[in-house]
Amino acid sequence: MSWHRELLIGFDLETTGTDPCEARIVTGALVEVKDGVPGGRREWLADPGVVIPQDAVEVHGVTNERAAAEGRPADRVADELASALAGYWAAGVPVVAYNAAFDLSLLAAELRRYGLPSLSERLGGTDPGPVVDPYTIDRAVDKYRKGKRTLEAVCAEYGVALDSAHHALADALAAVQVARAIAERHDKVAMIGPAELHRRQIEWYAQWAASFQDFLRRKGNAEAVVDGQWPLRG
């Protein structure tokens, strides 16, 4: 049976900003999906310890007042998320995250910030994985399609319902359903095992980054640098 019909774990973070090295976790979610059917789920609300900018509040809806009143300490949220992810990887279960290089790099930065064990340390020194990133896969298998590659746009392309965009649980579930839909449309994706798919995404992301960096430099930004590391930057 192909990987997309086996157990998958959807993962998403909503945050204080767009820089994974500096932004903080506000909400997080994990959802178990087997053959398209959601099962167990966990959600976290953190007090990030910094002011949540208004533009971020307008995206995910979590105010500073709510985070302070209801959120748990940010270090505990980061630790629990990392431990849960490591547990799935240790069992060989793929984790699905849309634009995984952002969410996983941000979580890794939070772990460093609070002096907590890294994802690799929680896995006995091995790299985190397998990771399935529909953003990276879609860009590789349908690179010439016009239009945006936001989660909302890609959900529309693959016929996946997304009723509460930028809510961590809804986005985590949508990421899994988009990954499944890509595999259903593209046999070459469905036929790759999770470990090999992870390896190919490393290559696909690096190729995209090099191409985009070249594009930016040809457009006049001679010093443009696009980080090609996936699924963890830096």
What does this structure look like?
The protein is an alpha/beta fold. Helix content is 48%, strand content 15%. It has 10 helices and 6 strands; from the N terminus they run E-E-E-H-H-E-H-E-H-H-E-H-H-H-H-H. The protein has a 6-stranded mixed β-sheet, sandwiched between helices. The mean pLDDT is 97.
Indicate the mean pLDDT.
97
* Sheet having the most strands: 6 strands, mixed
Tally of helical runs: 10
- Count of β-strands: 6
Distance between the termini: 35 Å
In helices, the fraction of residues equals 40-55%
| Neighbour order of strands in the largest sheet | 4-3-2-1-5-6
Radius of gyration based on Cα positions: 17 Å
Instruction: Give the amount of beta strand, in percent.
Output: 15-25%
Q: What string, H for helix and E for strand, traces the elements in order?
A: EEEHHEHEHHEHHHHH
Low-confidence stretches: none
Instruction: Indicate the structural class.
Output: alpha/beta
List keywords for this structure.
single chain; 234 residues; alpha/beta; 10 helices
Question: Strands, helices and their partners?
Answer:
Layout: E1 7-15, E2 25-34, E3 37-47, H1 54-60, H2 64-70, E4 72-73, H3 74-90, E5 95-96, H4 100-113, H5 119-122, E6 131-132, H6 134-141, H7 151-158, H8 168-185, H9 187-190, H10 194-218
Parallel strand pairs: 1-5, 3-4, 5-6
Antiparallel strand pairs: 1-2, 2-3
Helix pairs in contact: 3-4, 6-10, 7-8
